[in-house]
Amino acid sequence: MKAFLAIVKQTMRSAIRSKIFHVLFALIILAVFLLPVTVSGDGTAIGLVQISLTYSLGVVIALISITTLWLACSQLSREIEAYNIHLVVSKPCPRWKIWLGKWFGIFIMHAVILIVSAIVIFFLINWRVSRGNFSAEELTRLDKEIRVGRRGFYPQTPEYDRMADAEYERRKGEFGDNHDVASTKAEIKRQLVAKSGEVPPATAKDWVFRNVAAKSSDDTLFLRYRVYSGSTSSTNQKQMPCIWGLRDPAAPPSVADPFRYISFNVMGGTFQEMPLSARSIDASDSVTVRYINPPQEYWQGVEATPAVFQPADGPAILVAVASFGNNYTRAMILALLQIAFLAALGCTVSAAFSTPVAAFVAVAYLVIGLSIQAAITAPLTNDDGSYKYKNVTEMVLHKFAQGMSHIIVSVDDLDATSDLIRGRLIENRRLLSTVGYLLFLRTGLIAALGIWIFNKRELGAVIRK
Amino acid sequence: MKNFARPILGFAIAFALLGLSLSVVQSRMNAIRYTEQLTDTDPLENAPPLVAFTSVALGGFRGLVADWLWLRSSKMQDEGNYFEMVQLANWIVKLQPRFTGSHAFLAWNMAYNVSVTFTNFEDRWRWVKRGIELIRDEALEFNPGDPELFRQLGWIFQHKMGKDLDDANRYYKTEFAKEMIRLFADYYGQWELLQKAPANEAKLRAALGDNEFWNILAKHGYKNFDEFEKHFRELAVIPPEILPDLQKAGIEKTVELCLRYRWMTMKYHLDPTWLHKLNVKYGDLDWRLPEAHAIYWAERGKDKWTEDKDSFKRLSCDRMLFQSLSAAFETGRLVYLKDIEHLEMTPNISLVDAVNKSYMDSWDAYDENTIGGAYGNFLVDAIVTLYKFGQKKKAAEMQAHARTYKRYGTRFSPNLDDFVLKELAEDMEQASQPTAQGTVQSYLMNAYYQLAIDEDEVAESYLTIAKQLYDRYQKFVAGTERRRGLPPWNQMQITSLETTKQRIPAPMAKRLEERIPRAKEKFIPEAGEIAAPVVQ
Asked: What is the ipTM of this complex?
């Protein structure tokens, strides 16, 4: 342990002496103190908090990540090139301990910088909001929608496979003898999924959300949704009339229609959040909402079109379950894991290559990780959310990218700022899967590779340039 | 450290010398650039230090940065994250201060595309304002000579706020009117007085003397004039605690004029000289409504065009002028009931001659076929509106003028009463019974509504028209009254009166009840036993 701590201490000392670290640290200080008080949003309290968090955390985490990667890439390789490491390895200290000591030293130093920065940003943003002359109504909205951790509840998904099987059995005779059963069922399923999200004019669709739990009946729930007009194409979207109904659990059984309705116009293809009362949760912890696509006469001279809901766009019910501080801490835990990963990546390549090559390899790995994310989302999608490939090559490349995403760690997976600024709870299962799957499993493999390389490397063969 | 001292000192001296030399030759270089036409654009004006610095420091790379910001802005919009758009648009304008096409697009995008994604009218209004502010406070600040920016700004007032294409258009108009009422307060219309107001602190000091006003400010805890001005703009009146002292010193009017002048010119970029000039030119424009502001910005833009520039764009400014004037004629007068804080837009018939002249001038200047068509429609609207407002003589005059144009054939030939009734009742004869009943009731309800807002003459005209339409329809359905006839006239009056009272805010309904006994007898429905059904 003594040897490990000595290496940690020496790594931190050496890191602090780096000139690049000085420059980046100065930038971090500037970003921490200037960004939260200088950027301006759309004039609302919500906009102010969203933009301050996005820019401050985004820039600070990016800068800390760069310093982490740079120092991790340079620490071990420089000591090897300068023959300093030869003195260390001649001591009774195994090489895995040296590698871990380097990794931990870099990680802990940046973790402290990140934690301090996050605390300062948190207080500066809250201070700016308190000085912003915002109305009490606006601050209440801020606390209900953004400065909170809201859990998303989704409606039960119909059993599409069973429905597709039943539909296939019903229509089997239409397909002829030589049809491929699997692809026919897949197409039927795709059509069922697409149809389930479509609400033609003068029809309605109900969604039931189960196990919805609010702290109190005075709480506000939010219905988040995106409805398209006609198709999910982003062009040609128009203002459409819509009627939302909410089942009133207090309505007596004698009432023919227990829904309470609200109607308004909404722009197709845009995300909307509508507040609902927690009193709409019934005794079995369910909430039922209804969407009515009005008939032609309500469309004010515009041709009525079906309302289309994509599975990924909801509707979802958002319920406040955690405080903003809690959610903010969760986002910072993910940022810490990102630093841990970058430090491990840097130390691994640094054990194998000289500093410039190590930096190049590490950056290439990150670029591949980011490109894979882009490649996964690149193909067009159908209304039901399934992919619409242009040709076989695109399909093969897409499958390849999906496969690679299970091997390569992308820093995008560790970015929780977008959830934080929307008041969406960073769930425990996401934290646990990040720690288990991303950190221990995949980063652990990288670390193991780094230790193995460092163990196997013939340090005596290094020639000073 | 010793090793660094000399180079640093040398660098600092070189920097200072070069900076000094540059400041000496910069203005001369800019003048040569301008006179020799070495660049397509004039040197950047009014640039704050940050913009001047980024323009020079980033050089050609600022275009790349602006492109990246533009892409980010588009991506954020696609994802429904609008909170960054104001900041990104602001940075793009600062990085590319001369690329006015992009400024106009960003402003239009915020005012039109982003605003309609919100269902809440308050949110929508905020984005319309952001669009206006981007052109007015940023883009025009750097490009005060670009007429296209003036035109685009006027377009937001004319089309987005003035027209009824957006569900929230009445909300925009009302909120804008409230802002203007706060801005002008009791000095509305006193443009000549405002022109003479001290424009800054130094001039105010010169007007008031060195001590008294500043002593009063200090006594009430204001650290400086800026702090006092900020407080004034929050309240929109001189703070009540300081007012008695200013009144005692006899300087409250000068101070308030200065504050309001500065607010108008600095925040809203409204020059009282121009307001006065446009009122002289066109008549009594209502500066609390968007149409007047569209005219203001179109005139400012037109003022920047020179003969050698694009005639199509000049035409678009002229088009905006006559369209806005026409809109101002239709709904360009604000009725503001201060006691119940009620705002209502009504026709501004005093503008009829100005609108007429504007159309005629543009038609003469451009000989555009479409202008002739629009002019014909305006003449019809003008005659009907003047008639409805009891200005029968002026309506007849306009009709006579319209008859002089061969283009319109026999459209304006019938006598005035028949012409107006024909225009109003064009669809009456094809109408079903419920539609005819609804039309008559809407005129009756309008009559009662106008009575509630003290517009007695207009109310009387509406009542007359309702009766004429009623009689005309009854005559048309003679013989089939049992199937298609309208309810008795007094029943329709009762129904309309009751419905109006239900639909208008309670304080206005109370006013209407008070007004009815004082109004002429024809407004009072005869007593009847009929309950008040609600008009669909």
From this structure: 0.76
